[in-house]
């Protein structure tokens, strides 16, 4: 059986990556490929890797309501509206934005506005490694943020081993993490051969990391999170530091990570002392994780990488969609990245 699916925001980076992945998916047909300002534009003129005559569709909620599943790859504002419309008519939806990830209080704190549909939040959080059964049953799935999923996969198995209040997360993302719209700070002459932090100490992903460490692991209190902008198009690297509880050994850390992901197709735990590289996961849904313990400070240092457009957005969304449609979770979702 082939499912009819739609992408809203197909002209953006996340939506375009979904379109690429759907081109190789045997059981999903992108029946609607919608954009906003680019509606009517030939797809190939924006996305040269997807040649053909097709143009971007306009967003038509009535047309979306006829589909088996819709991916929302828009900013959270339009997603709030469309996600609610689709939820009201029972259409399965995977939202890549932050519109439905937090509860009402968290949304107000981190996004500065009252949520228009508190009855819909938090939606099922699309982290199959920790909520596979819930995702499979969900109508509305909130896909995790890119920094968040990369941090959660690294830290969740370790939450019982670390001291509350001691977690520091350092994130670095390629420029596609900021979306397709041109901004002064993303101009090649600004970002090339340069490196900078931004957003600390209150980047919006901080609250999402804290919330889902507690939901799926253990509450480790407030974390410090600082993102950075890398002069590469895609790829995201997290370095997280936390104080170990007394008695916890380096072996306990390795065992916790290996046990958590032994059966997971997309999470690879590397040998301690080797460090993951962003290039190894680009184009895939993989997350590579590695941890070392510093015996001098008794801190664990965990590093993890994803493709911000992969596990951090489009392929993670496709993994969730497969589950929601009762398909094999890995169908059309690449395990291995491109290298070099
Ligand atoms: N980029 C990442 O690495 C990443 C990772 C995880 C999650 N996300 C989230 O995924 C979502 C999309 O991100 P992105 O980076 O792909 O953004 P993007 O490149 O800026 O693309 C945004 C898309 O949304 C469409 N859009 C804008 N306003 C709209 C409206 N009112 N109604 C319908 N469509 C509208 C745009 O259409 P036009 O171009 O036609 O105007 C475009 O297709 C965001 O919520 C982002 O936070 C992104």
Description:
With 340 residues, the protein is an alpha/beta fold. It has two domains: 3-143 and 313-324, NAD(P)-binding Rossmann-like Domain (Rossmann fold, 3-Layer(aba) Sandwich); 147-306, Dihydrodipicolinate Reductase, domain 2, CATH 3.30.360. The chain is 29% helix and 20% strand. It has eleven helices and 13 strands. α7 packs parallel to α9 (205-216). The mean pLDDT is 97. The chain binds NADP nicotinamide-adenine-dinucleotide phosphate. The site of NADP nicotinamide-adenine-dinucleotide phosphate has 31 residues, from α1 and α4.
- How many runs of DSSP E, i.e. beta strands? 13
In the CATH hierarchy, the third-tier topology of the largest domain is known as: Dihydrodipicolinate Reductase, domain 2
Q: CATH homologous superfamily of the largest domain?
A: Dihydrodipicolinate Reductase, domain 2
Strand order of the largest sheet: 8-9-7-10-13-12-11
Point out poorly predicted stretches. none
Cofactors, ions, other ligands = NADP nicotinamide-adenine-dinucleotide phosphate
Q: How far from one another are the termini?
A: 36 Å
Task: Estimate the helix proportion, in percent.
Answer: 25-40%
How many discrete structural domains? 2
Q: Class by helix and strand content?
A: alpha/beta
Outline: globular
The proportion of residues in beta strands is 15-25%
